[in-house]
Write a structure and sequence with these properties.
Elements: H1 2-13, H2 31-45, H3 57-76, H4 81-104, H5 108-136, H6 152-175, H7 183-200, H8 203-220, H9 222-233, H10 235-238, H11 241-248, E1 251-253, E2 259-261, H12 263-280, H13 292-296, H14 312-345, H15 349-367, H16 378-405
Antiparallel strand pairs: 1-2
Helix pairs in contact: 1-2, 1-5, 2-4, 3-4, 3-14, 4-16, 5-6, 5-7, 5-16, 6-7, 6-8, 6-15, 6-16, 8-9, 8-15, 12-14, 14-15, 15-16
Length: 414
């Protein structure tokens, strides 16, 4: 019972951490640290053994090495030692949830329950965002961000979070998989997610939602795909005006009558170019973890206030060098490949659904990191690492159960 309560608590807590006190009265003591220590205890005392190591093990270790090298470079000359170490700690700790959940979750029913908890967290996030939007009014252009905070970047994070998780809910509905939730409930949460994403006014989340929905329907239901495409081509009829204004505002008319990108979009290209010209070219091994903001600042024009890279690929290449970028890309590719192997090798429909849904989640992670730097965000990625472990372990357990019942089945380890 302790294990079930603890794992449920951390899944619910991570994306809702801002609703809890940041400290508990002692330095370094907070809710997450207490929950993580409990998980670590379960991990170290777990006596179960597995025939196969976690399929992301090698890629994550390579990513850790690249991050440690970046941290070491940053510590050579830095004025924010504690911040740099904290970023590194978050990279390791939150992604290590993958290893912990993979090891200690060893039963199909147990994993099905935790996947339902992840669904419940998405439902709670949607409820909070919808409540916030209704308090502003449907005609308001004020961005909503739910549990992620109250500034513009928080709205982007909320949009990316939902864009990552709701494709699996749509896939759950399309496959009519009752093992995780009733299909009608899955569809309902999906539409709540769509509504919520609309009012985060996060354009990258709009793109992610469209791409993953098209991929979802193209694999499952061509009639729904055609319907979706018709709706997209006629978006002006049904999409809320404030959402249309947000999309159309990407391009504005300059004083000479020519169209150009809005300031927010234009600033990203300026930042990326400056990072390449002044930092990446001169520091192929990276400038050091958490050093982007301070090092890019002198190369920025006065009109750009943001100092974030707004792209995880650019950020990692700048701070961790080509080694870090290779490690990051290989990690992404490996995750997508695992989803493909789950889909390809399983004969059970609900497991195939998880494989296809996981692939779409990885696509959403990539799209969510092209226009912003969300890969380091614990609130966004914490539950992604957990769900990755749950899906990977569920596939491994289900396949071994199937092979035991069908001895001639070939080995399908990922």
């Amino acid at each position: 019972m302790f294990k079930k309560i603890l794992l449920t608590a951390i899944i619910i807590y991570i994306p809702n951490s801002l609703h809890f006190p940041s400290t508990l009265g002692l330095p370094g003591l907070n809710v997450f640290n207490l929950l993580f220590l409990g998980l670590l205890f379960l991990y170290l005392t777990d006596k179960s053994t597995s025939d196969i190591k976690s399929p992301l093990s090698g890629n994550l270790k390579f990513y850790y090495i690249a991050s440690f090298i970046a941290l070491s470079i940053s510590l050579i000359d830095t004025s924010h030692f504690v911040d740099n170490v904290t970023i590194f700690k978050n990279i390791i700790v939150y992604s290590s949830l993958y290893f912990i959940f993979y090891k200690i979750c060893n039963d199909e029913k147990e994993i099905e329950y935790y996947i339902k908890v992840v669904y419940f967290v998405v439902f709670l996030m949607c409820l909070e965002i919808i409540k916030e939007k209704l308090s502003y009014g449907l005609g308001s252009s004020k961005r909503v961000s739910g549990a992620f905070g109250h500034d513009e970047s928080s709205a982007n994070y909320a949009g990316v979070f939902l864009a990552i998780f709701i494709p699996l809910l749509l896939k759950n509905y399309l496959y009519k998989c009752n093992k995780f939730t009733r299909p009608i409930f899955a569809l309902g949460i999906f539409f709540m997610g769509v509504f919520s994403i609309f009012y985060t006014y996060s354009r990258q989340s709009y793109l992610s939602l469209v791409v993953t929905s098209i991929l979802n329907f193209s694999k499952t239901n061509k009639i729904l795909l055609i319907t979706l495409l018709i709706l997209l081509f006629n978006a002006s009829i049904w999409v809320p005006d404030t959402v249309l204004d947000r999309i159309e505002g990407t391009k504005v008319e300059s004083t000479d009558g020519e169209e150009q990108l809005d300031e927010s979009s234009e600033s990203r290209f300026v930042i990326w170019q400056a990072a390449y010209d002044n930092l990446i070219v001169n520091h192929p091994f990276g400038i050091g973890l958490n050093e982007f903001k301070g090092r890019i600042d002198p190369y920025m024009p006065d009109w750009i206030r943001a100092r974030d890279a707004h792209n995880s690929f650019v950020l990692i290449m700048t701070e961790s060098g080509f080694i870090g970028l290779i490690a990051f890309i290989l990690l992404i590719l490996r995750m997508y490949y695992i989803g493909r192997m789950i889909k390809k090798n399983s004969s059970q429909e609900h497991v195939i659904m998880l494989g296809e849904g996981y692939q779409l989640m990885v696509v959403a992670v990539v799209l969510g990191n092209v226009y912003s730097s969300t890969f380091y965000s614990p609130e966004i990625m914490g539950n992604f690492w957990i769900l990755s472990a749950l899906i990977h372990k569920y596939y491994y357990i289900s396949q071994n159960s199937y092979k035991n019942a069908n001895p001639r089945t070939a080995n399908t380890a990922v």
